[in-house]
Amino acid sequence: MTRSLPTPPRGRDRWRRDAWQRVIARLDPETEYETISAVNTRFEFPWDIQQALSFALFRTFAVPSIGVLLHETHEFTERTQKRHDDTVLVLDAIVEDGLESTQGRAAVRRMNRMHGAYPISNDDMRYVLSTFVVTPVRWLDDFGWRALSRREIDAATRSYQRMGELMGIKDIPATYEEFEELLDTYERKNFAYDPRSREVADATLELLCSYYPKALRPAVEVFSRAIMDPHVRDAFAYVTPPRVVVALSRGLLKLRARALRFAPPRVRPSRPEDRGTIRTYLPGGYRIEDLGTHV
């Protein structure tokens, strides 16, 4: 069974910036959490959530037990584009149809088979889950045209709790605040420099910059380092850009946010294949069962 999204704003609501907020206000975050999260991913914050989740995944490499394992598989250093596409498309199948759908369950099974082939601890799995819960909330606090409401935070938290349950992760935090505490504590205790993790980070950063015109890529690389959390930058031994560059980079994102406050609500859903970042499978398409590693 496929979950349907609410009807996009029509009539006068087509021009109300808060149109989707009014839709979300009618949804229950305890039972309709996936619908709320899908509205935000598809309509309210598609670019922001994409960026936030890219940085969420990126920061996990700074935990040596994660970064070194990824280096040893060669997936992120030799097949970076494919590994990116696999991750995005598996998660997108869940957004599109819901965790309880046939496609959603197939996506979870594919994730479980990939992860089950490697010695990944439950602690690392919980930490990675926490980055997907917390990083988008903090990104939107800093750079979104609005911050998430409590209803939206609770819905996103519940969505990832359910995903974690289906992935067999144990001792999943019960609230958003517990996920925050887990993330911050885990990073304080486990972030450390390792040259192999740095290679994974470098390959991923190079891929993210490749989505921009060649002449702009050096500036995008500096911009990316400028908006990283300082302790993430330090864990990879990345050079901190000059203070003025950091301020300018963050300022540009905040300026974009202010401009978006005056934009009409999105009425056409934004999907990964529309953004030009999926290069491995499209236009030929793919099957969920074919995504990822097959060890």
Count of alpha and pi helical runs: 14
Oligomer: single chain
Could you say which structural class the secondary elements and strand pairing correspond to? Answer: mainly alpha
Record field, number of beta strands: 0
Mean pLDDT: 91
- What is the percentage of strand-forming residues? under 5%
Please state the overall shape, judged from the principal axes of the Cα atoms: globular
Radius of gyration: 19 Å
What is the domain total for the residues?
A: 1
User: How helical, in percent, are the residues?
Assistant: 55-70%
Would you kindly provide a brief summary of this structure?
With 295 residues, this protein is mainly alpha-helical. It has helices at residues 19-24, 33-44, 46-60, 64-73, 75-78, 80-97, 102-116, 122-143, 150-166, 176-190, 195-209, 217-227, 230-235, 243-260.
